[in-house]
Write a structure and sequence with these properties.
By secondary structure, the protein is mostly helical. It contains seven helices and three strands, in the order αααααβββαα. The chain has a three-stranded antiparallel sheet. β1 and β2 form a beta hairpin. α1 packs antiparallel against α3. The longest helix has 23 residues. The protein is globular. The protein binds manganese (II) ion. Manganese (II) ion binds next to α1.
Length: about 200
C-alpha cells in the first residue's frame, strides 16, 4: 500500500461484530476516521513525489528521510492508517479465532501463565490508557511479547516491535454505543477479537 492511499473494502459486513461493535460505529470508524487519515496523508504526500512509492511501514520507520516541515504530520497520518488497518484486521465474528492457537498460544502461556491471565492484564492496561491511544500486544525479533500503550497515532515499529493485537481505545471507537464505559467495550472486544497465526 502506497500513495495514493485508497480505502480497501471492509473485509466483513459492517454489522458483522454486532452486538459487540455496532454497525454505526463501524461505518464512522472505517469510512470516516480511517479514510480521513488516508485523505490527509495523500494531501501531504502529493507535494513529495519521492515518497509516492514508499509503503506505510517505510514512512513510519524512516523519519529522518521525511521532509522536516511535514515529518510529524506524515507520521501522525501514516500511523493512523497503520493502526486502524491493524485494529480492523483484529476483528472477526469467527469464534475459532477468539483465542490464540499454536505458537502464539504457547508464547502467551509461557510469558503470561495462561490466556485468562493475559486477558486480565491486557484489559486492565487498556482501561488505563490515558487520553487517546491504543493498547497493543507486540512481539520483537526474539519472540518476546509485550503489552504496551501508544499515544495518539504512534507505533512501536522504530523499537523493532510489531503489533499482534491492536485495540483502539480512542473514544470514537466506542462512544456511540458504550458512552463513557470503556471497560464494557474492552470486554466486548474479546468477543470479536481475532488472534493472528504466527509462523
Ligand atoms: Mn480509531
Amino acid at each position: 500500500m502506497n500513495y495514493p492511499f485508497t480505502l480497501p473494502t471492509l473485509p466483513y459486513p459492517y454489522d458483522a461484530m454486532e452486538p459487540y461493535i455496532d454497525s454505526e460505529t463501524m461505518h464512522y470508524h472505517y469510512d470516516k476516521h480511517l479514510k480521513g487519515y488516508m485523505d490527509k496523508l495523500n494531501n501531504i504526500l502529493k507535494q513529495y513525489p519521492y515518497l509516492y512509492d514508499k509503503s506505510l511501514t517505510w514512512l513510519l520507520t524512516n523519519p529522518t528521510l521525511l521532509p522536516n516541515e511535514d515529518k510529524q504530520n506524515i507520521l501522525n497520518n501514516a500511523g493512523g492508517i497503520y493502526n486502524h488497518l491493524n485494529y480492523f484486521d483484529n476483528l472477526s465474528n469467527n469464534k475459532n479465532v477468539h483465542k490464540p492457537e499454536g505458537k502464539l498460544k504457547w508464547l502467551i502461556d509461557t510469558q503470561y501463565g495462561s490466556f485468562d491471565h493475559f486477558k486480565e492484564i491486557f484489559s486492565k492496561e487498556a482501561e488505563k490508557v490515558f487520553g487517546s491511544g491504543y493498547l497493543l500486544l507486540t512481539i520483537d525479533y526474539s519472540q518476546q511479547l509485550k503489552i504496551e500503550k501508544v499515544a495518539n497515532q504512534d507505533t512501536t515499529l522504530l523499537n523493532g516491535r510489531y503489533p499482534l493485537i491492536t485495540l483502539d481505545v480512542w473514544e470514537h471507537a466506542y462512544y456511540l454505543k458504550y458512552k463513557n464505559l470503556r471497560k464494557d467495550y474492552i470486554d466486548a472486544f474479546f468477543n470479536v477479537i481475532s488472534f493472528p497465526i504466527l509462523k
